[in-house]
C-alpha cells in the first residue's frame, strides 16, 4: 500500500489504465467487426492487428529521443489529446465504411500511442525509489491482466450491444480521462526533463540519430540489459500470435458457432492466470533472483503452448491458457522490476523506446507470416502453435545459459561500487 501514497504514481497508474482501456476495447471490437463483415476473409482481421504494430517501423528511431529530450509529462498528455482527436475522425470514417481509410486512421492512432508508454514509463521511474520498481512492475502486470480478463469480453459485449460506433466512443472518453489525469500530476522538473530543456528548433535529424545511436550503444555495452531487451523481442512473436491465433482457433476449429464468446473466455482465462501469477510473483520476488523468476516459467510456457496445438477440446484449451498466464506473469514482473535498476534515468526513455519497436517488429513479422500462411498454405492453426512453442523453448535454453552468469557479475560489480563509496 505504500506505493499508493504517492499521488503522482496513482494518477499515472489510472491514466495508464484509461489509456489501455481506450486501446484494448476498440481494437477487439474492430476484430469482431471485421470477422463478421468479412467472414470468409480472415486476412482483414490480421491486417487490422498489423495497423497496431506496423507504425513502430516509422517512428521507432525518434520515440525514445522525444521521451528523453522533451517534457515527459507533456509528451504523454499530448498523446492522449491527439488520439482522442483521431478517434473522432475514425468515428466519422466508419459511416463511409471505407476499410482503407479506417485502416489508415488506425495506423496513425497507433503511431501516436508509441510515444505514450516510453514517456509514461520514464515518469514512473522518476517518481519512485529503486525498492518500489518491482512493485510498480507487478502492478502494471496486474493492470495488463485485468484487461486480458475484461478487455476482450468488454470489446465483444460492446460490439454486440452498441456496435463498433459505441466501442469508438468508449475509446474517445478513455483517452480524454487519461489526458486529464496526467495533467493533474505534479511531477518535479528533474523527472520530467532529466536532460534539461530542449526546443523543437534544436531537434534535428542529425541530433535524433545521435541520440538514437546513444540508446542502442548503451544497451549493447550492458550485456545484461541487452539480453533483457532481446527477451522483449522474442516474446513479441508470442504476443503477435496470441493477438489473432486464439480467435482463429475458436472460429475455425473449437467453437465455430460461438467463437466470440469463447474468444472472450480465452482472454479471461489468460488474464486470470496473469493475475494469479502476478500475486505469486509479488510473494516470491524478494526471495529469489530475477533470472530464477524468468527461466523456469519460460520453459513451462513453451511446453504448454506446444500442447495447445494438440487439444481439440475447448475447455482443455482454456485450462492450458490459464496455466500459461500464470507462467508468463513472473517473467514480465522480473524483467519490469530488473530494468529500471540497471538503466540510468537520463537514458530510460531511449531504452524504453527500443522495447516497443522490437516487440512490434516481432509481432508484425508474426502477423505477416500468419496472414501469408493461414489458411492458404497452413490449413490448421496447430502447426502455428508448434512453431511458437519452439521459439519460446529456444529462448529458455539461451537464457538458462547466459542470465545466471551475467546476474552474478552485475551483483559483484554493484557490491564493489558500494564498497568504494563507503571507503571514499
Automatic annotation (TrEMBL):
Keyword NADP listed: no
Gene3D superfamilies for this protein: MFS general substrate transporter like domains
Keyword flag Ion transport: no
Major facilitator superfamily (MFS) profile domain residues: 8-405
A matching Pfam family: MFS_1
Residue spans crossing the bilayer: 12-35, 47-67, 87-108, 137-156, 162-182, 224-249, 261-284, 291-310, 316-338, 358-377, 383-401
Alphabetized UniProt keyword annotations: Cell membrane, Membrane, Transmembrane, Transmembrane helix, Transport
Protein's recorded name: MFS transporter
Amino acid at each position: 500500500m505504500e506505493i499508493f501514497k504517492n499521488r503522482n504514481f496513482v494518477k499515472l497508474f489510472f491514466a495508464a489504465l484509461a489509456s489501455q482501456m481506450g486501446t484494448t476495447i476498440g481494437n477487439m471490437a474492430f476484430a469482431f467487426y471485421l470477422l463478421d463483415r468479412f467472414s470468409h476473409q480472415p486476412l482483414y482481421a490480421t491486417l487490422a492487428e498489423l495497423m497496431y504494430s506496423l507504425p513502430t517501423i516509422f517512428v521507432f528511431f525518434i520515440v525514445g529521443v522525444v521521451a528523453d529530450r522533451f517534457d515527459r509529462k507533456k509528451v504523454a498528455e499530448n498523446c492522449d489529446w491527439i488520439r482522442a482527436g483521431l478517434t473522432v475522425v475514425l468515428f466519422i470514417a466508419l459511416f463511409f465504411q471505407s476499410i482503407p481509410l479506417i485502416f489508415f486512421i488506425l495506423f496513425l492512432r497507433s503511431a501516436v500511442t508509441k510515444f505514450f508508454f516510453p514517456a509514461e514509463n520514464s515518469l514512473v521511474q522518476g517518481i519512485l525509489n529503486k525498492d518500489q520498481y518491482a512493485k510498480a512492475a507487478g502492478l502494471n502486470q496486474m493492470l495488463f491482466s485485468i484487461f486480458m480478463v475484461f478487455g476482450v469480453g468488454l470489446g465483444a459485449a460492446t460490439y454486440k450491444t452498441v456496435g463498433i460506433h459505441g466501442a469508438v466512443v468508449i475509446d474517445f472518453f478513455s483517452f480524454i480521462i487519461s489526458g486529464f489525469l496526467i495533467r493533474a500530476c505534479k511531477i518535479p522538473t528533474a523527472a520530467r526533463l532529466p536532460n534539461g530543456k530542449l526546443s523543437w528548433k534544436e531537434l534535428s535529424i542529425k541530433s535524433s540519430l545521435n541520440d538514437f545511436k546513444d540508446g542502442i550503444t548503451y544497451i549493447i555495452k550492458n550485456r545484461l540489459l541487452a539480453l533483457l531487451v532481446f527477451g522483449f523481442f522474442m516474446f513479441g512473436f508470442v504476443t503477435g500470435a496470441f493477438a489473432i491465433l486464439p480467435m482463429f482457433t475458436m472460429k475455425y476449429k473449437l467453437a465455430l458457432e460461438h467463437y466470440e464468446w469463447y474468444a472472450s473466455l480465452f482472454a479471461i482465462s489468460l488474464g486470470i492466470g496473469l493475475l494469479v501469477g502476478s500475486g505469486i510473483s509479488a510473494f516470491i520476488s524478494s526471495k529469489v533472483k530475477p533470472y530464477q523468476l524468468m527461466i523456469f516459467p519460460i520453459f513451462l510456457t513453451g511446453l504448454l503452448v506446444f500442447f495447445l496445438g494438440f487439444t481439440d477440446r475447448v475447455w482443455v484449451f482454456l485450462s492450458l491458457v490459464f496455466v500459461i498466464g500464470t507462467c508468463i506473469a513472473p517473467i514480465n514482473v522480473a524483467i519490469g522490476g530488473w530494468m529500471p535498476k540497471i538503466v540510468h534515468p537520463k537514458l530510460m526513455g531511449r531504452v524504453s523506446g527500443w522495447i516497443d519497436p522490437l516487440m512490434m517488429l516481432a509481432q508484425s513479422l508474426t502477423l505477416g507470416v500468419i496472414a501469408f500462411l493461414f489458411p492458404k498454405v497452413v490449413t490448421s492453426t496447430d502447426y502455428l502453435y508448434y512453431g511458437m512453442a519452439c521459439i519460446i523453448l529456444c529462448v529458455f535454453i539461451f537464457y538458462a545459459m547466459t542470465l545466471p552468469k551475467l546476474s552474478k557479475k552485475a551483483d559483484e560489480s554493484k557490491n564493489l561500487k558500494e564498497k568504494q563509496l563507503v571507503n571514499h
